[in-house]
Write a structure and sequence with these properties.
Elements: H1 2-56, E1 73-77, E2 87-91, H2 96-106, E3 112-116, E4 123-126
Antiparallel strand pairs: 1-2, 2-4, 3-4
Region (Disordered): 1-84
Biased composition (Basic residues): 1-65
C-alpha cells in the first residue's frame, strides 16, 4: 500500500514537472513571438519613415556660373527640298536639360517636342 502511494506521488510529481516545463516553453515561445512581431512592426515603421525622408530629400540643382552668359546656339535647316518644317537646334552646352530652358526662352514661338542625345552638343527638334 505504501509503495503504491509512493509510486503514484512520484508519477504525479513527474506529470507536474512535465506540465510546468511545457508551460514554461509555451510562455517562452509566446514571448519570442511577441518580440519578433514588435521588431517587425518597428522595422516596418522605420522603412516607412525612411521612404518619407527619401521623398522629402530632393537634390538641389547647382547653378553654373556661366548660366547668365550668352549661349551659342546654331540653327540648322533640315530637308533637301528646302523646306524648313523641321528645324534643328544644336546647342553647345554641357547639359541638355539646361539648354532646353534656354531654347524655350530664345525661341518662344516654337515648341520643342523631342530631344536626341543627352550630352554636350545635343540636337533638339522643333515643331
Amino acid at each position: 500500500m505504501k509503495e503504491k502511494r509512493k509510486k503514484r506521488k512520484k508519477e504525479e510529481k513527474k506529470k507536474k514537472k512535465k506540465k510546468k516545463k511545457k508551460k514554461k516553453k509555451k510562455k517562452k515561445m509566446k514571448k519570442k513571438k511577441k518580440k519578433k512581431q514588435k521588431e517587425m512592426k518597428k522595422n516596418k515603421k522605420n522603412k516607412k519613415k525612411k521612404k518619407k525622408k527619401k521623398k522629402k530629400k530632393k537634390k538641389k540643382k547647382k547653378k553654373k556660373k556661366n548660366d547668365n552668359e550668352e549661349r551659342d546656339v546654331e540653327t540648322d535647316l533640315q530637308g533637301n527640298d528646302g523646306s524648313n518644317s523641321v528645324e534643328r537646334l544644336r546647342c553647345y552646352l554641357s547639359q541638355c536639360h539646361s539648354c532646353l530652358k534656354l531654347k524655350k526662352s530664345v525661341i518662344k514661338a516654337v515648341r520643342i517636342f523631342s530631344v536626341s542625345g543627352t550630352q554636350h552638343g545635343a540636337t533638339v527638334r522643333l515643331e
